Amino acid sequence: MGQSGAAAREYVLDLRFVDPSFALTRHIPWRCIWTALALTAATGAGAMWYAAETASRPRHLDLAAEVSATLFAGATLAYLAVAVRLVETVALHSLHGRVAVLEYRGGVGTLRRIRPFMRKLGAHVRLAAAARRSTRAEHLRDELREHYRLKEAGVLAGETYDASKARILAQH
């Protein structure tokens, strides 16, 4: 969980302890965007320079053409970097421990593509909420056990488990 490039793990998740609201985030690579825009402006300036050179000296176009082509290539690569570095994340957190128990990351369009699954999963979480224990103390104890089980399964790191345990015990 939370590690970029981590291999997907299979584990069973008890939906009784999941917050029904999804955490949707989008990381936007602003430096790449600003670089792409600057290179686009420079490409436009280079194209204007090329047009001016063509009008005044039609035989000496090599430098102006090379500069324009290089700037255009740089702008294209910067826009590709924006597309590759934009990351959208959908996460489910535990109800009281507030730890991510399920996280899915992808590129552009991930949030749009995963919405049908999120609707179905949200319905299952709401159904599972009806099966929660009758008292808050019992529910908190069960959630703590679920967190321990996920830690033992390797889904939660030790520090993450300790932080969620402290949050749960603070509400007990």
Question: How would you briefly describe this protein structure?
Answer:
Helices cover 59% and strands 11% of the residues. The protein has helices at residues 30-56, 62-85, 110-129, 136-152, 158-171, and strands at 23-27, 87-93, 100-106.
List keywords for this structure.
172 residues, mainly alpha
Overview of this protein structure:
- With 172 residues, the chain is mainly alpha-helical.
- 59% of the residues lie in helices and 11% in strands.
- It is built from five helices and three strands; from the N terminus they run βααββααα.
- The chain has helices at residues 30-56, 62-85, 110-129, 136-152, 158-171; strands at residues 23-27, 87-93, 100-106.
- The protein has a three-stranded antiparallel beta sheet with strand order 1-2-3, with no helix packed on it.
- The model has no long low-confidence stretch (mean pLDDT 88).
Shape: rod-shaped
Backbone structural class: mainly alpha
Mean pLDDT: 88
Our count of helices gives: 5
* Order of SSEs: EHHEEHHH
End-to-end span in angstroms?
26 Å
Flag low-confidence runs.
none
Helix fraction by DSSP (H/I, runs of at least 4): 55-70%
The description of the largest β-sheet is: 3 strands, antiparallel
Largest sheet strand order: 1-2-3
Radius of gyration: 26 Å
